[in-house]
Amino acid sequence: MKQFILIISLLTVISKSILAQAPYKLPDLGYAYNALEPYIDSTTMYIHLNKHHNAYVNNLNNALKGTNGENLKITELLAEISKYSDAIRNNAGGHYNHSLFWTILTPKKNTAPDKELMEAINTSFTSLDSLRTLMNKAASMRFGSGWAWLYIDQNKKLAVGSSPNQDNPLMDASPIHGTPILGIDVWEHAYYLKYQNRRGDYLSAIWNVINWEEVTRRYHEVIPKAKGKFDDWPEIISFHEVLASTFHPAEEGDFSAIRNRSGELSSKASALATSKIPAQFNKKEVIDVLSKLSSTTKALDKLVHKKSSDKTLMKSLTAVHDSFHQIVERCK
Ligand SMILES: [Fe+2]
User: pTM surpassing 0.85?
Assistant: First the structure.
């Protein structure tokens, strides 16, 4: 009987830990405290995580005890935060906002929004520079402590705004609503050690360490990535990769790539011709050109083995290229 009770208790604990998020834990940064220098200093990062964020986590866990909020995911809790105490609101926001903040910073250089996010930025703000200016303006104008946000609003459009204290756009009590994908902490604890009262200098510097790959990932959690035309046909993507890296150098007079890779190109064409064609492209006019591509690529490989002239190879490679584009055309 005792064993039975123990098993039931264990199952209850396990299911609760899966369903509920509390008790919350302090996340790892994922990089060293000094990794963002010179833009954000090591001491600030250490204190910010281990003192400030840690306090939000502990205070949240204590404040949630015995409330319905204990059994909610953090996003569910934030969505109905107006039902809870100020202690839960401030500390749940503090934990969520900082957990997001650490991930959208990186020591990695030259990260960039993907094509789709960049298009959305250009549509909403005209350019990435304008977005930065708007974010910095929102952050500068936030009186006292708070956050500046790039978020996806309820019409699925990008928007910039700010919230006081530890509020965020996920909160029902917030003046702005949506899903945050980039947040800038403008509490003095985020910058005072290095920048003192120069919030503007901190705001200029932080763009050097924004992790656009993470911002992009968060963007696509809300706006699904557009499906590529040939995503379900890996053999055609694989063939095209080799074709592009051999045809274009040849056009510019460099035939070394095609001389080295004609066999690979030929086997990719054979694999493509015998691949499982996605239903939407599985029609006679496509199949006809697939076999033509395979034969033209084999002929090209033979010419390479015969050490044919560049001119002869270019003629043959152009035939392969034309066949490939006929396939693409017929797949429209
Ligand atoms: Fe902070």
Answer: no
